[in-house]
Design goal:
Blueprint: E1 10-19, E2 27-37, E3 42-46, H1 53-60, E4 68-73, E5 76-77, H2 81-84, E6 93-96, H3 110-123, H4 134-140, H5 157-170, E7 175-179, H6 187-203, E8 207-212, H7 215-221, E9 224-229, E10 232-238, H8 239-244, H9 249-256
Parallel strand pairs: 3-8, 3-9, 6-7, 7-8
Antiparallel strand pairs: 1-2, 1-4, 4-5, 9-10
Bound molecules: iron/sulfur cluster.
Iron/sulfur cluster binds near residues 248, 288, 291, 293 and 312.
């Protein structure tokens, strides 16, 4: 069958991911999410800690089991790693993790670790002419080629994240997933690493799913934005439109907190309470206990994401 060139590279449909704890009902960390990423597109997924962003990222990369729903990458179903061990097509999804200290092996030279990524692409059948070298990849991420001979601990956090990006690029991904890739970096490195990921993904025609709690950075690099709250997407749309006219009360609260002097998107004091426990989500609209615009019925009826890209009863037909 000929692939459809207009089809999304990544399609997440009605995804549910659950965690099980002994003696307790399952916790839905992701509770029915649909999302698409197209080739050459940057999608920013934002929300507070504990909203399910990282669980979604892990599911997209086949690192966690799906309870319900479906994920497809380039037409291939994404399944947990144990099942898909031999599905080479899925090595076209590469992830950049949050912790640049823990994601690199301190005992192996940088060049050797980047070569792992290149071997992944070779194993997928990429021709020798399409493959590159660790030195070339290091140059592309703004580090000297000589860094290949050194060890990760000789570099700063921002430089290590560049090395992790080089390793991911070596596998010639068509989809790059960044799971809070800038949150462990100092403020000066955050925007540099985020813009680097965007430019490398776009110039290679890859899609980028960029997950962050920092809206000020996501605003600058994402074509589209999806706002997640307690396992659900509550608003989505082109970044410029959502930024100019946020509609969901939670999106408005997030944007009201940006920019902060340190660039962090923390919630404003006027939004009461913490994110509820996903093991015991509120009835009706999950945001209702904190929503300044909640009205009669919000504690009973759960709003669905409508065609306009918002899940809030204020906009129901
Ligand atoms: Fe607020 Fe009601 Fe909209 Fe939920 S549905 S965000 S509680 S107004």
């Amino acid at each position: 069958m000929t692939p459809d060139p207009t089809a999304p590279l990544l399609s997440v449909d009605d995804l549910v991911v659950q965690y099980h704890r002994p003696g307790a009902p399952p916790t839905r960390a992701v509770a029915g999410v649909s999302l698409q990423v197209r080739a050459g597109e940057v999608v920013g997924l934002v929300g507070e800690s504990g909203c399910g962003k990282s669980t979604l990222a892990r599911a997209v990369c086949g690192l966690t089991a799906l309870a319900e729903g479906r994920i497809t990458y380039d037409g291939t179903p994404v399944r947990p790693l144990r099942v898909r061990r031999r599905e080479l097509a899925l090595t076209g999804i590469q992830m950049v993790f949050q912790d640049p200290y823990g994601s690199l092996n301190p005992r192996r030279r940088v060049g050797s670790q980047i070569a792992d990524g290149i071997r992944t692409a070779a194993g997928r059948g990429e021709s020798a002419a399409e493959l590159t070298t660790p030195e070339d990849l290091l140059t592309r991420v703004g580090l000297p080629a000589s860094a290949a001979e050194r060890y990760p601990q000789e570099f700063s956090g921002g430089q290590r994240q560049r090395i992790a990006i080089a390793r991911a690029l070596g596998a010639r991904p068509r989809l790059l997933v960044g799971d809070e890739p800038i949150s462990a970096l100092d403020a000066s490195a955050q925007l540099q690493v985020a813009t680097l990921m965007r430019s490398l993904a776009v110039e290679s025609g890859a899609g980028l799913l960029f997950i962050s709690h920092d809206l000020s950075v996501v605003r600058l690099i994402a074509d589209r934005i999806a706002v997640m709250y307690l396992g659900r997407i509550v608003e989505t749309g082109p970044t410029a439109e959502v930024w100019a006219d946020p509609r969901h009360p939670y999106t408005r609260a997030l944007l009201a907190a940006v920019p902060k002097p340190d660039g962090a998107g923390v919630l404003p004091a006027e939004l009461p309470g913490d994110v509820p426990d996903p093991a015991d989500p509120p009835s009706g609209c999950r945001f209702h206990p904190r929503c300044p615009q909640a009205f009669d019925g919000c504690d009973r009826e759960e709003p669905q994401l409508i065609a306009g890209g918002v899940a809030c009863r204020l906009y129901a037909a």
